[in-house]
Amino acid sequence: MTTDLNLTGLESSFGGSLAITPEDADLLFREARTAQTFTDEPVTDADLQAAWDLTKWGPTAMNTGPLRVLVAAGRDARERLASHMNEGNRQRVLDAPLSLVVAADTGFHTKLATLAPHAAGRVAHFEAEPAMRAAMARTNAMLQSGYLIIALRAVGLAVGPMSGMDAAAIDADLLAGTGWNALAVLNVGHVVGDGGAFPRAARLTWDEASLTR
Ligand SMILES: Cc1cc2nc3c(=O)[nH]c(=O)nc-3n(C[C@H](O)[C@H](O)[C@H](O)COP(=O)(O)O)c2cc1C
Questions:
Q1: CA 19, 22, 23, 27 torsion: positive or negative?
Q2: 105 with 133: CB under 8 angstroms?
Q3: What are phi and psi of 58, to 5 degrees?
Q4: 4, 10, 93, 212: which has the fewest C-beta neighbours closer than 10 Å?
Q5: Measured from the CA of 164, which atom of ligand 1 is nearest?
Q6: 33-189 — its CATH code?
Q7: 138, exposed or middle or buried, with CB in 10 Å at 0-12, 13-18, 19+?
Q8: From residue 105, how far is each of 5, 58, 84, 110, 112 by CA, in Å?
Q9: How far is the CA of 212 from the centre of ligand 1 (A)?
Q10: What is the pLDDT of residues 136-194, one digit of tens each?
């Protein structure tokens, strides 16, 4: 049985250093789960706008901000997207109220004048190095995808991320002509309880995941 004394102890060991409320830490991290099933409640444009308005402030190399998002809202787009998912992920896309394809814009350098005025002189250098650009876009867009997952949670939504898919097929179909490379699909919506999440698996402790030299 949990006693008040134990709760106080827990709060001081895990919550004492937090600069956000324990409830917010639960919402964003500790109680947020990878959702499998969603209610029919739609995700609004305002929800997505609000999530982006948080996501966009997360740091990226040189402030390049290469994350792009395809919103697969309609039935046709979700059926096409589902056809490119690994079998176990297919029905999840069809059943979700909304699926987002998070992608890396390999042409991010064309926006350097706005996003990184200090580096605007390097556009020609980036133009000549497509492989370097693709790697840089991928690393930073993946980082921003993490920010987006947490931002979606911050606006009260649940997320089911999936990368089991034929990314090249998504690029050739839904992302044709954009220069964007698909990284993952995020199913997004509202849930009841934990959204049918699988049993929670363990996480590494700080001691296991860190080295101090
Ligand atoms: C980038 C990424 C790719 C993932 N790909 C898949 C996937 O293809 N299929 C799947 O069932 N789950 C996938 N997952 C879900 C993870 O297994 C899940 O987020 C993780 O086990 C943590 O689950 P929890 O949030 O419920 O603790 C993916 C998650 C992430 C972040």
A1: positive
A2: no
A3: -65, 145
A4: 212
A5: 8
A6: 3.40.109.10
A7: middle
A8: 52, 17, 20, 10, 13
A9: 29
A10: 999 999 999 999 999 999 999 999 999 999 999 999 999 999 999 999 999 999 999 99
At residue 15, the 3 state secondary structure works out as helix
Q: Is 184 in the pocket of ligand 1 (CB under 6 A)?
A: yes
The response to whether residue 36 sits with its C-beta less than 6 Å from ligand 1 reads: no
- The chain-wide mean pLDDT, for the chain, equals 93
> What whole-number distance in Å separates Cα of residue 28 and Cα of residue 24?
6
Does ligand 1 come within 6 angstroms of the Cβ of 28?
Answer: no
Distance (angstroms) between ligand 1 centre and the Cα of 85 equals: 14
Would the CB of 161 count as within 6 Å of ligand 1?
yes
Q: DSSP string of 66-78?
A: -EEEEEE-SHHHH
Identify the pLDDT of residue 12. 47
Tokens found for residue 106: 């390999």
CA distance 113 to 96: 38
**Domain boundaries, given as residue ranges, for the chain:** 33-189
Can you list the positions of beta strands (E) in the chain? 67-72, 98-105, 158-162, 180-189
